[in-house]
Amino acid sequence: MATVAFFYQVAALLFTILVFVSFVRGTRGVPSPPEPRTRRGPVSGLSVVLVLDAEADAEHCVAALLAQDYPKLQLVVVLAGALVDKTTRARLEADPRVRLLELGHPPVGWMRKNAAFAEGFAQVQHDYVLFIDSDVLLKPFGVERALRLAKQRGADLLTIFPALTATSPTERLMVPFFLQLVLTGVSMHNINDPKSDAAGGFAPFFLFRSVVYEALGGHAALRADRFSESTLAQSIKDQGYRLLIANGTELAILLGQSSLRDIWRSWGKSFNATIGNDTRQAALVGAVVFAVFALPWLLVVLAVARIATAPETLADSPWVGAVIVGAANIILGLYHRRALRNLLDIDDSLAWMQPLAATIAALMIFASSLHLEGRHGVRLR
User: Fold this and answer.
1) Domains plus CATH for the chain?
2) What are phi and psi of 61, to 5 degrees?
């Protein structure tokens, strides 16, 4: 048993090394936005299309949007089932930059969100258009800095990884681990490489050149596609346009889900987008997640317990090797999570509870193949 545990820990350590090296290579050269301008020169026009759905935090989202200080800014706000209080509505109606639309029932064959974005784009007046969801809070100068980054890099589509809130213990437990999983198989470096066919993006923040969005057919061409943003990102690459994914922690904040139920629903959709409804594949992926991210920790605990209760001395214990290699694996894994925390500016204070997070994630991955629900997710290819 001790020999099996030792070689298992060796294999797990080698995998952790590969994952960490992949993370370092995949995040190298990821651009950050320029600093806010201190002096204003000629600027390009920008339209922002915001969809407020039934689950929107309309008050804070609208406040962050209206606070943007950019001279050529058009704001198209589509009410798609949102409950907007009188004060917030009055602020929208009073701002001359705002075009307020209300979406009724979407046409037959349309996803509500795609219909809302398509209707919003019909009002766009500028060369660039930013599509954002209602759980994205723009930071001060967020739209200006995003637009300048897109223009500097010649991006036809700019998408970002925003800062993420982690206010509840459940968020601090699960969200950093999910991000670690997502970035395990995704290279942002390859996404930004025009020679690579890798594509993907953060669905609630897509900044297009308007002419390119129209050339792709926009959301209207993907009216029934539940994951239309992922399809648009892939189309950008397939048709030879420039896709750029950037570190957007200084541009926007993604509001999280404080309860396990909401996290389960939202991220379950993301996993389903990647794995689909194949129960066997989902079970396999879930088992791998548990085996790689939880079991090595548990084996260290088991080995320490065996050493503590065994009659032989520490030097003679067959479990020492499993403890040493397992501890090295855990330390490297925690260092990986620290690098991820520094990159994405997220609270990872519960990293020491990774076995629990991995167990929940494994169950969630399997369950996602059985039942799909949730608001949106990250889908990366």
Assistant:
1) 2-26+268-372 (no CATH), 44-258 (3.90.550.10)
2) -65, -45
